[in-house]
Design goal:
The structure is a homodimer of 329-residue chains. Chain A is an alpha+beta fold and 329 residues long. The first copy, chain A, has a single domain, classed as HIT family, subunit A. Helices cover 26% and strands 24% of the residues of chain A. Chain A is built from six helices and 15 strands. A ten-stranded antiparallel β-sheet of chain A has the order 3-4-7-9-8-13-14-12-11-10, sandwiched between helices. The radius of gyration of chain A is 20 Å and the shape is globular. The two termini of chain A are 33 Å apart. Chains A and B meet through strand 1, strand 6, strand 8, strand 9 and helix 2 of A and strand 1, strand 6, strand 8, strand 9 and helix 2 of B.
Chain lengths: 329, 329
């Protein structure tokens, strides 16, 4: 018998469909490998093939992390923000920013194989760009995300993440904020802190835990092996994180990606940093809790999901957590 | 410069990113063909390979449309609906129904190539199953959808659609209902009727029009060439449609699919029927308006979209409508 489960924050229901259960190896869609590319614009020595650099962490003659504008940006910083109605419809022009964070100078490296200090530098670059863009008061929200592997939407194989700064707060985040606020108003507690506490006691959905972070399979996951990295300390924004926590997050992320690689044969994945809007009302710190969501790309999203916003997931989070917990790292 | 646009019903924002603009032929991911399959469980003569039939429209010795339970159902009708809390979390067991509508006895036929009377019979089968399942008061909503082609999630190539009956109203529909209700409370008019009127006057996003239906590229489409078939007569539920309208819808759907096939090289697609919940409050008929959404599967949905519920679409609806309007049928 399938299980219908509701995410306590967004109110999103999912079907955990045990009838369709699969073993981890049945999911295999793509093993992400780097073929090597002498023309790769992200490799050390090819710096002239990207648009002019926004930020770089240098080391002697080379660099560890580089940030450049996206060559085909979805949004641009130049110009004024014009809002306009067209009868029933609303539009504004595409003010924002779209940047690429080149995570390593080496073509064959990934966040699962890089050293922890190198991964930590990626977080510092994310943070530095957010703090800079935040000064632009037209911008309301910044999404940091990563598409790893062709099936996850990556068009270049060299390890990189992206950042999109938006003049609006997107719907998914708005729903999370609303849900978290509802919980807070009722109970004077952060719903994510409550989740971390309950999951810690229960244990069945915990994948790994350290002093600062808990990696868990969420109660109502949309996708098989969906994994959230939850900071244990309450904080609404990624960019307010301390140096010690970044080191801790680097260790936890590397650990989780290695577990996925051994169990799911180096799968493609999407990673998204969830963080509060840039200029939220005072006190927002009390109800929203930043975190990282990692979704291995193992299944196709089809018509039913598009039509309903309701996901059918063949793997229960308890089973996924057990597999990942026992995986070699 | 990109355009940010807001859907007037759901409040969903999209980026129409002209920087990334592509011609229709650049999108080519898959041309859906039927390879033929002597073992296909949906072909005439293989009726013993499906679970026992729920409904069939017979003709002499054969049949035109058959409905069977899904062999690996996401939900089942048997049992009682148990609702349960687990600390912060909510769950219920998977009560519902999951059926497959086999649209034609012939392996090589599709909704674009079948005759209009044959397509109309598919709609009658959808309607008949909805009216039957509706008598089960545990069920709140029925989603009728179609995944056509492997990239759109179809696991069998023989033309078929599916129906999932749910004990909850899914989030996407809830948002549509809320948005439509908000509009109605403000203006005493159906937002979809307003859209049909405004689009009819404007014309730039209209793909085709008949006495009963308008095919249009929505103002804020999530995907390139996304197309909505809007009934001109206000009605909240698909199943309340009249025979004449079904004939008209068959004509319009075939026409739109043929236009997509010539322009986009017989693309994979998802089709979803949007209709009011089964047992909604009296007066719901005034604000919600059923319709059909067709989304050719031409692009990959990546991390940014998952993280934000916010879509980047490289093709503006005005351009998509123009291409489809001029396409050969």
């Amino acid at each position: 018998m399938a299980d219908l489960r509701k995410d306590p924050v967004t109110g999103r229901w999912v079907i955990i469909s045990t009838e369709r259960q699969k073993r981890p190896s049945d999911f295999h869609v793509e093993t992400v490998t780097t073929k090597g590319d002498t023309l790769c614009p992200f490799c050390q020595g090819h710096e002239d093939k990207t648009p002019p650099e926004i930020l770089a962490y240098r080391n002697g003659g080379g660099w560890d992390v580089r940030v450049v504008p996206n060559k085909f940006p979805a949004l641009r910083v130049e110009g004024d923000l014009d809002r306009e109605g067209e009868g029933l419809f609303d539009r504004m022009n595409g003010i924002g920013a779209h940047e690429v964070i080149i995570e390593t100078p080496h073509h064959g490296q990934t966040l699962a194989t890089m050293g922890e200090p190198a991964i930590e530098k990626v977080f510092w670059a994310w943070r530095e760009r957010v703090l800079d863009l935040k000064r632009d008061i037209r911008l309301r929200h910044i999404v940091i995300f990563k598409n790893h592997g062709a099936s996850a939407g990556a068009s270049l194989e060299h390890s990189h993440s992206q950042l999109i700064a938006l003049p609006i707060v997107p719907r998914e985040l708005k729903e999370e904020l609303d849900g978290a606020k509802r919980h807070f108003l009722q109970r004077e507690r952060c719903v994510f802190c409550d989740i971390v506490r309950q999951e810690g006691r229960d244990g069945t959905r915990v994948i790994a835990e350290s002093a600062d972070f808990m990696a868990l399979a969420p109660y109502a996951p949309r996708f098989p092996f969906e994994t959230w990295l939850m900071p244990k300390r309450h904080r609404s924004r990624f960019e307010d994180t301390t140096p010690g926590e970044f080191a801790s997050l680097a260790r936890m992320l590397k650990d989780v990606l290695q577990r996925m690689n051994t169990t799911l044969l180096t799968p493609p994945y999407n990673l998204i940093v969830h963080s509060a809007p840039l200029h939220d009302e005072p006190g927002a710190n009390d109800f929203y809790h930043w975190h990282v969501e990692v979704m291995p790309k193992l299944t196709r999203v089809a018509g039913f999901e598009w039509g309903t916003g309701f996901y059918i997931n063949p793997t229960g989070p308890e089973e996924a957590a057990e597999v990942l917990r026992k995986a070699k790292t």
